[in-house]
Amino acid sequence: MRIDGNNPIDNKDLFKIQESAGNLSAEKKQDVEKSDAEKDKISLSGRSKEISDLKAAIDQLPDVRTKKVDALKQALDTGTYNVDARKIAQKMLEEI
Fold this sequence. Notes:
Order of helices and strands: HHHH
Largest sheet: none
Shape: elongated
Number of strands: 0
Helix content: 55-70%
Oligomer: single chain
């Protein structure tokens, strides 16, 4: 059994496909043969270098502030941690 699909390719369409593929390979060869002066170049500004350095410094910071967490744990354990309901309500209203 032979299935050709909805639009079988005849010889003239196959020739067009091969011809266009040949043109693409010629264009690729021309791109490879470009001199160093014609190739794309990238240069970073001083500002981007500064941003990169700052990002690296931020990445080195710890995710958890252990001193603050330890202080809160101690306050909870001793029962000295107080919650101000007004501050919580105010922050909730600011979020709206």
